[in-house]
Specification:
single chain, 5-stranded parallel sheet, 23 strands, alpha/beta, 459 residues
Length: 459
């Protein structure tokens, strides 16, 4: 008998879960209030931000980097209207791609607000649907600051910062996490004077400290002004500008801006799903509690992605979606949460997977840290792009790779090589003895691995 599955949410976790379940023979329905598939990631997150990062980097590169190759350009300009137009076109094409995959896999899509109305029942608008299994993949929304209401005119969310139709003279970003850093970099490259305000004493506090320090130094050189270890004491705004009063060590300073971007993280979005009446348990922070198979406290109701604990990353949600679909359909599947890479798409890029040094020290795991600088990598030398390094963390006794931390121009792509090695339980010697093409950026990983058990060849 064919299993009926309802997925609430058409973001990366939801649509991937739906497709995998359909591939395995399930009758799948996806419900999402938005017309365009893809969730936060495609519509107001991962994809539009990477598009603007690439466009702004091309502009920045012409202004600052091409002279190294003997290239000069006069009368450079940026058409913000065209920038936003091409971004929208890409989002539409990707959304249509997911729509095509739904049709290909005979997945029904309903554009409505979903409510779990009973055991194995979901209400979508006026329609009541029955299912053998329900998967909650409703995503997250931006975290807000009390007394600093987002109006998308002066005070922006990440969505508002992606849709600006002009370059603000001054932009203050509240929060030095992944999203704040990326969007701060975009508008800094295009001409804004960008200040980033962070309560912690360093940027991207979740990063390995070596990466955080290196990225901080690099972004400072690019002109971004940081205010670290700061408390926001007061805030005022009118229709065109805003002013904040910042405090550190008992001293205050005023900071005014044309725009303020509030980027202090995201919170699970479960409004209207009827979780309380269904006795679906949540953590004090609002995350839905799930077991190792993604099942909630109510049988046959599952949750994946940003509504569950763990990093709010699209690829984490996708892996959970596949694992839950396969579990429901009777296959053995799991997610290895120690091998979930994370990337900040600034320039240089920053990428991590596995444990940081601080985590290994706290857990008293014997480890060895081995580095290789991109300044000794021939491909990076040839392209005048030598900033950064690869750092591998391996078990002191077995050489098993426990973590990797890369800062450099291609870190986001390179981290996959180490993640795959970790998934296959490789040690540093396995990586070192894997032949890499020359000259490539990946040779830096190989050299760092050599340093993990012997000595690098080129340092």
């Amino acid at each position: 008998m064919t299993k009926k599955i309802i997925v609430i949410g058409a973001g990366p976790g939801g649509y991937v879960c739906a497709i995998r379940a359909a591939q395995l023979g399930a009758d799948v329905t996806v419900i999402d209030v938005n017309k365009r598939h893809g969730g936060t990631c495609l519509n107001v997150g991962c994809i539009p931000s990477k598009n603007l990062l690439q466009a702004s980097y091309e502009y920045y590169k012409v202004n600052h980097s091409l002279s190294k190759f003997g290239i000069s350009v006069e009368r450079l300009s940026m058409d913000i209207y065209q920038l936003q137009k091409q971004k929208s076109q890409i989002l539409n094409e990707l959304g249509q791609g997911i729509e095509f995959l739904f049709k290909k896999n005979f997945i029904r899509f309903i554009q409505e607000k979903a409510e779990i109305s009973g055991l194995n029942q979901v209400k979508a608008g006026k329609e009541l649907l029955n299912a053998d299994a329900i998967i909650i993949a409703s995503g997250s929304t931006p975290r807000t600051i009390p007394n600093l209401s987002i109006d998308e005119t002066v005070v922006l969310s990440s969505a508002g910062a992606l849709d600006l139709n002009h370059v603000p003279n001054t932009l203050v970003v509240v929060g030095a996490g992944y999203i704040g850093l990326e969007l701060g970099v975009v508008w800094s490259r295009l001409g804004s004077k960008v200040h980033i305000v962070e309560a912690a004493d360093r940027i991207a506090p979740g990063l390995d400290s070596d990466l955080s320090q290196a990225l901080y130094a690099s972004l400072q050189k690019q002109g971004i002004i940081f205010h670290l270890g700061i408390k926001i004491k007061a805030f005022n705004k009118n229709k065109t500008r805003a002013e904040m009063v910042l405090e550190k060590d008992g001293k205050t300073e005023n900071l005014s801006a044309d725009k303020i971007l509030v980027s202090i993280g995201r919170v699970p979005y479960t409004d209207g799903l009827n979780l309380e009446k269904m006795n679906i348990k949540k953590t004090p922070e609002g995350y839905i509690k799930v077991n190792e198979w993604g099942e909630t406290s109510v049988n046959d109701i599952y949750a994946i992605g940003d509504v569950t604990e763990g990093p709010m990353l699209a690829h984490k949600a996708e892996e959970e979606g596949i694992a839950v679909a396969e579990h429901i359909m009777g296959l053995s599947s799991h997610v290895d949460y120690n091998v979930i890479p994370a990337v900040i798409y600034t320039k240089p890029e920053v990428a991590s997977v596995g444990f940081s040094e601080h985590q290994l020290q706290e857990s008293q795991v014997p480890y060895k840290a081995s580095k290789f600088l991109f300044s000794a990598n021939s491909r990076e030398k040839a392209t005048h792009d030598t900033e950064g390094f690869v750092k591998l963390l391996s078990h002191q006794e077995t050489g098993l790779v426990l973590g990797a931390h890369i800062i450099g121009s291609h870190a986001g792509t390179m981290i996959a090589q180490v993640a795959q090695a970790m998934q296959l339980r490789a040690n540093v010697e396995d990586i070192a003895r894997t032949c890499c093409a020359h000259p490539t950026h990946s040779e830096a990983i190989k050299e760092a691995a050599w340093n993990g058990f012997a000595n690098a060849i080129h340092s």
